[in-house]
Amino acid sequence: ILERQKQKAEEFEQEYEQQKEQLSTVQTEIQDLQREIERLQNDLSDKKSQARQLKGSIAQVKQQMKETVNGIVQIQSSKLEAVQSTWTERTQDLRSKKLEAGALEQRRQSLLEEDETLQARLDEFYRQIDELQKRAADPHEQAATVG
Fold this sequence. Notes:
It is built from 3 helices and no strands. The longest helix is centred in the first third of the chain and has 72 residues, at 2-73. The chain is rod-shaped and about 115 Å long. By secondary structure, it is mostly helical.
């Protein structure tokens, strides 16, 4: 009987050590996922900051476009030659500003889409962490994994 109890104690100790190793592995995986989440959150924060900056740039370009148009409207008709020259310069400037505003808007949309992608990845990592934490907390799950 003593020999059987000793053998059972050794088996229990081996199983305990295996579960400790699995727990350590799961904790390491959780830490890795948490680092990845932190990195993704920083990326997301950077992308949001870039989107805010682009939004400010777009507003500035729109204001410049408005000022350019207002300048064109205020030109006196008696200075037709100067008006024609200024008109050509300002029209070209307006076209380039519109192109720039369009490019900035496309970049902003791209950042918003990337933001959504990063958010989806972040949600998936949280789901994985929850799953790993549940597995780590459930002794039946650990025993099933060992077995």
